[in-house]
Structures are given as C-alpha cells and as structure tokens.
C-alpha cells in the first residue's frame, strides 16, 4: 500500500458507517454524495473487498466493512482527539516552560514576575535553571533564556526586559578620595583593579571602552581575581579596588551611594537584559504568555 494515500477514503468510510447513508454522510463531511461514493469505490478497489452492501433503499456494512470499522474507528477517535488537543494548546498555554537564566535576572525579573505568573497560569509549570552557560540551550531542551544582550547569538529573537544600561568602571567613594578617579583608560594602570574570571569560559574578562572613536580592550592588572559578581561588587564597596560592571548590575550600590561610576563617557554603549528564544519557538502559547506577562509586570 502506498503510504501517502493510505488514508484516502477513510473519512468517507467512517462517515457512511456511522450514518449508514451516503447522502447524510456527505452532508456531515461537507461533500457531495457523488464524491463520497467515488471515494468509497476507490477505497474498495484498493483493498480488494466490498465494504458496504448497497441497495436503492439501504446501506449496510459487509463483514469486511465491520472488521475494518472495528480496527479503524478507535484510531480515528484518537487522531481526532489529538488534533483537538493540539488546536486547544495553540490557544491556551499548557505544559512546562523551561527557562535558563543568568543569576542577575533573579531579583530583577524572575522574583517580581513569579507571583503574577502563578496567578495568571496556575496550570502552567515553570522550570528555571540558573546558569551563565547558554551555548546549547536549544539542544538541552530550554524554551527560552534570559541573558545580557551582548552575549546573545544573532540568530535568536530577543525581547528587552529592562531599561538600557551602561558599562563602566566603579569604585567606592573612599577609594576615589584616596586614589582619585581615572580620567582616561590610560589612567587605569595606576589603579588597583579587581579582575573577574568568567565561570562559563574560565578566562579573565577584559574591560571594554570606546575612546576617541576606537574600541579599547584592557586586561586589568590587580592582585585580586574573583568569579562571582556579588563578591566583586562587595569588595569594591569595601574599597579593595576598581571593578568593571554596569549601571544595572550595580544599581543597588549606586542607589545606596556605596559605589560611584567612572569613565561613563567611555562606555561601549547601551546594553540590556533580554529574554531570547529561537524562531521555531516563538509561537508557543506558553512562551507568548510569559512574554505578555513580562510586558505587564516589568513595564519596559
């Protein structure tokens, strides 16, 4: 049997078997009686057996027709139910939304969003993995990720989750009083810098600036190296040295006055925290629901 045509005639067969009338079956499935009769004839020719006894006044199943109906009807019901479920899932979010997020997103996105998410979609499960390693997020089964925009692959769709922020140098007021503020990137060689080793790559993060229209990347010198952003900012607050961070990462310290920015005029540009996902995932109802809620709660 040619597989692409295996189901030809089955809808007509099931409709006639249910109604035992070609005209009524034709009405049910939106076809003409002639089209239904033709489809049945082709099906019977393909199978090599008659499926119905036909008279001018009555249609009834043959023994072969009864046997086919017994085998096919449960499968047809399962297919119909599956299609209805698929159509329903396109309208209402369901299942589990799996997110991989960098730690920065927890206080700024996840924590404020969760209460509203649970209230809006109590039957939608949410699984969150906190990690800075996002290279294989699609192959690892995640629906979306939350990451700094400059780290997101260009073939992804990205939705902004925060206001734009700038990268710069930060230090405590006490440090700047004792050592002065750098006025240019060249001044950094005379300062104690706290180096950051990226956990996901293992390399020392280079400080990036734009000065006189050119990009400048500096491998900072310093006796302290850490791989945790919270610890890095805490050490800077204590006056242990300068750090390279963003106005978003350091927003609490800036608001409290425990850190001050320097070289903001040399910032490489404005960045942001983004929800990102592949083009194939963009129409998932569960993801659309999350995106809509982000806009309502975070008010970007």
UniProtKB/TrEMBL annotation:
Signal sequence annotation: none
Any GO MF annotation of the entry: DNA-binding transcription factor activity
Assigned keywords, A-Z: DNA-binding, Transcription, Transcription regulation
Gene3D superfamilies associated with the record: 3.40.190.290, Winged helix-like DNA-binding domain superfamily/Winged helix DNA-binding domain (1.10.10.10)
Positions of the HTH lysR-type domain: 13-62
Family the entry assigns: Belongs to the LysR transcriptional regulatory family.
PANTHER family per UniProt: HTH-TYPE TRANSCRIPTIONAL ACTIVATOR TTDR-RELATED (PTHR30537:SF5), HTH-TYPE TRANSCRIPTIONAL REGULATOR (PTHR30537)
Stated name of the protein: DNA-binding transcriptional LysR family regulator
Source organism per UniProt: Phytopseudomonas flavescens
């Amino acid at each position: 049997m040619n597989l692409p045509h295996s189901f030809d005639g089955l809808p007509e067969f099931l409709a006639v078997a249910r109604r035992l009338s070609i005209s009524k079956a034709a009405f049910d499935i939106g076809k003409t009686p002639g089209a239904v009769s033709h489809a049945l004839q082709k099906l019977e020719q393909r199978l090599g057996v008659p499926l119905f006894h036909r008279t001018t006044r009555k249609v009834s199943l043959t023994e072969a027709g009864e046997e086919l109906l017994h085998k096919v009807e449960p499968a047809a019901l399962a297919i119909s139910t599956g299609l209805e479920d698929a159509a329903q899932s396109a309208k209402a979010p369901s299942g589990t939304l799996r997110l991989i997020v960098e730690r920065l997103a927890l206080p700024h996105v996840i924590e404020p969003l969760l209460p509203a998410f649970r209230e809006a979609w109590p039957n939608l499960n949410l699984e969150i993995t906190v990690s800075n390693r996002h290279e294989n997020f699609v192959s690892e089964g995640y629906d979306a990720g939350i990451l700094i925009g400059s780290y997101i692959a260009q073939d992804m769709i990205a939705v902004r989750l925060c206001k734009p922020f700038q990268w710069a140098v930060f230090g405590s007021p006490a440090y700047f009083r004792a050592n002065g503020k750098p006025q240019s990137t060249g001044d950094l060689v005379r300062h104690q810098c706290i180096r950051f080793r990226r956990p996901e790559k293992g390399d020392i993060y280079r400080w990036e600036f734009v000065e006189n229209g050119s990009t400048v990347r500096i491998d900072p010198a310093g006796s302290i190296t850490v791989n945790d952003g919270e610890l890095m900012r805490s050490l800077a607050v204590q006056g242990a040295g300068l750090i390279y961070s963003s106005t978003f990462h350091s927003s609490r310290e800036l608001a409290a006055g425990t850190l001050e920015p320097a070289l903001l005029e040399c910032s490489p540009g404005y960045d942001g925290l983004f929800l990102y996902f592949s083009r194939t995932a963009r129409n998932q109802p569960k993801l659309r629901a999350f995106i809509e809620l982000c806009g309502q709660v975070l008010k970007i």
